[in-house]
Amino acid sequence: MKADSISKSDAFISEDPSAVCGVKAKDNTTPAQHSSSKRGIAWPMENKEDNPNVFAGGKISWIYNWSPYMTNIAGAEFVPMLWSINKGHDGNQFLDLAKDAKVVLGFNEPERGEQAQMNPTEAAHAWKKYIEPLRQQGARLGSPAIASTNEGLNWLEQFLQELNKVGGQIDFLALHWYGRGTDNFINWITHVRSQLGNKYPVWITEFACTSWNPQQPVPQDEVFDFMRLAKLDSLDWVERYAWFGAQRQLDAALGSVNCLLKADGNLSDLGQKYVHDF
């Protein structure tokens, strides 16, 4: 849901933190191969006051910033993204900047008007023109990243149908999730993967623990427990993931309890856990 500002107030909401938002599916596929560390950083490019290397030296193996312009963390792989072909984003420029990448990410929540805002047919043709050529250079291609809504899932299903028509393909799913309850989270990503045939590995490129209600914020202990209990490292079909957010402050609806940085730009207690523990 990353855009120019850091706000996610109109995302999917569940009033019941223990409610199930998906269906666990039996998985008979071969586990995806992955590096020893799946953990990554979603770095907001508008953060000009902090140094991303504050996240170096621990379990962080990759970084992305919703763009093709490199952000460096010592020892971490940069993964470029084509956010959209609308709203001033240049597909040809992306193709040039991402030409040496091993992995790239597709459009950011294209089902949403305030995000990439692309219909499935438009997105499939853009993918074929600007992203699919990178496969010939050895890159793996991550799907457009959808929000945790039925609208997003329906969009992705239609996109994959259109992509097949134009001769393109994805290598893994990129998913976002915001809410409460680790069961909700794991059930949702399992459900999406199941709906798409249980054949794709998954990257979670944005996720956080939130109530979406600034009057009833999630306690810090609940956020710690969510991060600890999600156990994404134990799911073979989850290749990589990136917590939101790598900054000092988030909007009130999302909640600054999810910040990986504290007010002085050093790692928060949550950031310490994410980078070095769990």
The spatial strand order of the largest sheet comes to 3-2-1-8-7-6
How many DSSP E strands?
8
SS summary, helix count: 6
The separation of the N and C termini measures: 25 Å
Query: Which consecutive residue ranges, at least 5 long each, have pLDDT under 50?
Result: 3-35
Average pLDDT metric:
89
- Beta-strand portion reads 5-15%
Helix and strand composition category: alpha/beta
Query: Main beta sheet: strand number and arrangement?
Result: 6 strands, parallel
Radius of gyration, Cα only, in angstroms? 17 Å
Task: List SSEs in N-to-C order.
Answer: EEEHEHEHEHEHEH
Please tell me about this protein's structure:
- With about 280 residues, the chain is of the alpha/beta class.
- The protein contains 6 helices and 8 strands.
- The strands form 2 sheets. It has a 6-stranded parallel β-sheet with strand order 3-2-1-8-7-6.
- Helix 4 links the parallel strand 6 (about 175-180) and strand 7.
- Helix 2 (about 120-130) packs across helix 3 and helix 4 packs across helix 5.
- It is globular and about 50 Å long.
- The two termini are about 25 Å apart.
- Mean pLDDT is about 90; it is low at about 5-35.
